[in-house]
């Protein structure tokens, strides 16, 4: 299964929504960057084990499933979404329903249909608690909520996204998405006005996930947040070594 590449870049100055609305140009830039980041994280590959499921099922269902997946792999998301909907309508009780729902939700994210994606990710998590890709569904639920919050600029919406991201390390501790979920959890806290609350989460990434590719972004975010709070940050030796091995990482203050 394809996993997200943690290659975040912070090219904007964060500003708490409790201090007023973001300037229009900055808000648009924020949303565009966030969407680009989101699309680099959502899963577009076949969930683990689905190849075997396809081989075992009704050939007609298999063909329809494959056609929908083919459109999605070609990044033809509207066409793929239409076929996923048809598949789910035709086979509402099939064992591949959670996989099809997950693919559909990803297509909706790519089309910036975030509220509908949120509903679908929540349905997957509620109705299919043993679905192997629930860590991905939970993570992508947080990302969809995060993008909704960027549009509304409401602290309460950022708090909803925070809660979704918080579940990933709490419930799926071994998931490769934990470091990035922590990063977004801290980001959402800061944007909701709780900069102090974001600090220990950024620091936990540096200390507990030092080998993660999210470390440069987490260190920069920590530096920026401390700067906004009129404090300084010194990177631990382990973090400095980690940053030195990433020549393409952004410059840090």
Would you mind describing this structure in some detail?
- With 253 residues, this protein is mainly α.
- The chain has a domain at 1-18 and 155-253: Serine Threonine Protein Phosphatase 5, Tetratricopeptide repeat.
- The protein contains 12 helices and no strands.
- Helix 1 (24-39) packs antiparallel against helix 7.
CATH architecture of the domain at 1-18 and 155-253: Alpha Horseshoe
Structural class: mainly alpha
Shape: elongated
Portion of residues within helices: 55-70%
Largest sheet: none
Low-confidence stretches: 1-31, 41-56, 242-253
The proportion of strand residues reads under 5%
Radius of gyration of CA atoms, rounded to a whole number: 19 Å
Distance between the termini: 36 Å
Mean pLDDT rating: 79
List keywords for this structure.
253 residues, mainly alpha, Serine Threonine Protein Phosphatase 5, Tetratricopeptide repeat, disordered N terminus, disordered C terminus
Short recap of the structure:
By secondary structure, the chain is mainly alpha-helical. The protein has helices spanning 24-39, 50-56, 59-73, 77-90, 97-110, 114-127, 134-152, 155-171, 178-191, 195-208, 215-228, 237-244. The chain has twelve helices and no strands.
Task: Give the topology, please.
Blueprint: H1 24-39, H2 50-56, H3 59-73, H4 77-90, H5 97-110, H6 114-127, H7 134-152, H8 155-171, H9 178-191, H10 195-208, H11 215-228, H12 237-244
Helix pairs in contact: 1-7, 3-4, 4-5, 5-6, 6-7, 7-8, 8-9, 9-10, 9-11, 10-11
